[in-house]
């Protein structure tokens, strides 16, 4: 709808008038860039402060501590990214997260027994969702991961679709009963997880998040558990549909599959019948796979960046924004802008975001500085997603393991159907969900054992053989 409105009226910005509120929708890239620079006047903090307590169901005391300062990074809400940045930025902590998630993926793929002559049939979206859930949470929470309990996993699937609904003030409680009941199951599980503090086996990321909560004088274990349930939404929800679309577009396109396999083959070393995949080099050595990932984020991304207008402000010296209003920066408007992506902006091209010079196909992305903000797969500005590096790493690791280990073909006639995306099913996800699942058959490409390695471990291995 936002893209349709932009195309119909060609306005750089327009106003949506709602009862008691104005929402300014920004369509022009230069206006979005200007808005992101005014984070003290146009802030996400007040919006987050109102929503987080409702999503988490935290006590009044905890809510008071969370909202003492919603405008600076000295406060609980905007200070979170600063507190955990060192654990999710490229470095040892991120590498540890990636390796743990990838190890779980290896175990789950082995559990499918695709290394036998028999083939394995799964529902691709449901299996990807569960696999990403376990890989992500194993990496973050460690050996005591609450999601090892099938009851907790089922509760998550009941809770996740209703998160946006319980954050709204005008929704009556009876309409969110199922979501709140599922939340209670999750809270009880995380209360046990934090009963003796943050477990030693937890990731550096989890420890930093826990310490940030304690530092802001939120020490009640139930409040900590409730905040973690809300926090889990941000680390789990978007990765699953992204991984699904990535697998769909690679395995349904023989050219994309072949290109990705050729790139990944260079990252595999075999020793004593075991194949070692260097997961830490995927982003730097597999431009086609990385481009396909980013094209998925562009083509299916529906994130809505929202800011509260804290005082009257003339944006870019052209558009007057009134205090008490909100601004909205829809990703879809930028992701389908023909002036940035070309006349085929509505089409999916797996090589669109390669960094190489155009190959004659006419859809290589112009990555000059003026256009970089047009890709909003992870938001932008001060609120650029802090977990984006981990999300990219784990999704690419799962895709790489499947690309190398098996063929995936649709059940039945073996032909890949066109799958529509359903924006109404996203329920707060920044990535559109498929409108239906797809039954597929996983066929093994060999019987060798697979495991993950890294550039560092391969260097040590080479030294030990000299």
TrEMBL record:
Keyword Metal-binding found: yes
One Gene Ontology term of the molecular function aspect: oxidoreductase activity, acting on paired donors, with incorporation or reduction of molecular oxygen
Cofactor(s) this protein cannot do without: heme
Binding site for heme: 385
Signal peptide (residue range): none
Pfam families: p450
UniProt keyword list: Heme, Iron, Metal-binding, Monooxygenase, Oxidoreductase
Stored Gene3D superfamilies: Cytochrome P450
Keyword Glycoprotein among record annotations: no
Assigned protein family: Belongs to the cytochrome P450 family.
Protein name per UniProt: Putative 25-hydroxycholesterol 7-alpha-hydroxylase
């Amino acid at each position: 709808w936002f893209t349709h409105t932009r195309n119909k009226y060609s306005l750089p910005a327009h106003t949506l008038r709602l009862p008691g509120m104005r929402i300014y929708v920004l369509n022009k890239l230069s206006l979005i860039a200007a808005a992101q620079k005014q984070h003290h006047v146009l802030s996400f903090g007040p919006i987050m402060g109102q929503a987080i307590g409702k999503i988490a169901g935290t006590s009044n005391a905890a809510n008071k501590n969370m909202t003492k300062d919603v405008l600076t990074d000295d406060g609980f809400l905007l200070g979170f990214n600063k507190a955990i940045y060192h654990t999710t930025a490229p470095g040892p902590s991120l590498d540890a997260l990636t390796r743990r998630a990838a190890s779980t993926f290896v175990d789950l793929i082995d559990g499918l027994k695709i290394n036998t002559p028999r083939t394995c049939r799964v529902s691709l979206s449901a299996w990807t969702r569960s696999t990403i859930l376990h890989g992500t949470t194993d990496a973050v929470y460690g050996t005591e991961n609450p999601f090892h309990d099938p009851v907790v996993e089922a509760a998550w699937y009941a809770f996740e679709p209703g998160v946006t609904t319980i954050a709204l003030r005008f929704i009556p409680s009876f309409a969110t009963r199922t979501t709140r009941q599922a939340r209670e199951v999750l809270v009880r599980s995380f209360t046990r997880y934090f009963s003796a503090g943050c477990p030693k086996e937890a990731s550096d990321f989890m420890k930093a998040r826990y310490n940030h909560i304690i530092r802001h004088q939120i020490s009640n274990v139930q409040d900590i558990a409730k905040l973690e349930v809300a926090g889990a939404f941000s680390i789990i929800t978007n990765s699953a549909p992204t991984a699904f679309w990535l697998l769909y577009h690679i395995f349904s396109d023989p050219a994309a599959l072949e290109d990705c396999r050729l790139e990944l083959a260079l990252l595999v070393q075999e020793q004593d019948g075991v194949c070692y995949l260097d997961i830490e080099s995927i982003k730097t050595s597999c431009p086609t796979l990385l481009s396909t990932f980013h094209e998925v984020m562009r083509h299916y991304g529906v994130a809505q960046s929202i800011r509260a207008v804290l005082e009257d402000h003339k944006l870019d010296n052209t558009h007057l924004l009134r205090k008490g209003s909100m601004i909205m920066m829809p990703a879809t408007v930028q992701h389908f802008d023909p002036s940035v992506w070309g006349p085929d902006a509505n089409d999916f091209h797996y090589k669109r975001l390669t960094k190489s010079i155009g190959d004659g196909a006419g859809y290589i992305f112009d990555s000059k500085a003026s256009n970089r903000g047009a890709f909003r797969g992870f938001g932008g500005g001060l609120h650029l997603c802090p977990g984006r590096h981990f999300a990219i790493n784990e999704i690419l690791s799962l895709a790489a393991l499947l690309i190398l280990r098996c063929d995936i073909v649709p059940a039945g006639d073996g032909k890949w159907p066109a799958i529509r995306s359903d924006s109404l099913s996203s329920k707060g996800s920044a990535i559109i969900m498929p409108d239906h699942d797809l039954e597929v058959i996983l066929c093994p490409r060999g019987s060798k054992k697979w495991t993950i390695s890294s550039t560092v471990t391969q260097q040590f291995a080479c030294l030990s053989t000299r």
